[in-house]
Amino acid sequence: MKKIVRKVTLYVGQIIRFIHYSYLRMNGVKIGKNTFISLGAKIDTQFGEIIIGDNVHITSGCVLLAHDGAIKQMNPNISPRGKIVIENNVFIGVNSVVLMNVTIGSGTVIGAGSIVNKDIEANSLAIGNPVRVIREL
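and the corresponding structure tokens:
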């Protein structure tokens, strides 16, 4: 009985993940091959452009924002929009936030709780609020 429940649970999880990725793709997010996006991650699909490369791991609680809603209350017709590019082989730690107009280079690790507000070069370990590169990988 436990084996059957385990198989059903895995199958349902795969279906939910497929629906999640399909929703993101329908809303303009480009997702590469072998990419994992936690169901607890929040990805802005209303504004801007988000490109996620191959072999990327976006963990639970991460937020990707390709717009700035700071002036939206003053003028709802104007909301600065940007682009987020996450290149191949990137890991983004739990509860990190990636803001608009940011490129995260290939082979980079972003530490948990980081606020990524600037470009990160390839093969780097970056952490903090605001994020800073602490080591080349």
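(Above: one complete record from the training split.) The two ends are 46 Å apart (CA to CA).
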